[in-house]
Amino acid sequence: MSVLSSIGRLANRYAAARARHRSERILLSLPAELRKDIGFPEIFETRESRRAATFSAKVI
User: Please, which domain of life does this record's source organism belong to (predicted)?
Assistant: First the structure.
């Protein structure tokens, strides 16, 4: 694996993370009623609980 391919992978991960966070910010800026209609709070809570479970598994 070359250094350039590693840098490219990191750049792709960074771009994907920025896009994901931008989408979350946009969704969080919507009124609560609209977020509830599209199911965003449930999706966000599920992902956060999955992230917490993954983190606690790594710590133990």
Answer: Bacteria
In this structure, the chain runs to a length of 60
Whether the CB-CB separation of 24 and 40 falls below 8 Å is answered with no
Distances (CA, A) of 18 to 14, 22, 32, 36, 59: 6, 6, 23, 24, 26
**Model confidence over 7-49: pLDDT tens digits?**
999 999 999 999 999 998 998 899 988 888 888 777 666 666 6
Q: How many domains does the chain have?
A: 1
Q: Which of 30, 55, 17 is nearest to 9 (CA)?
A: 17
* Host domain of residue 40: 3-59
Amino acid occupying residue 16: A
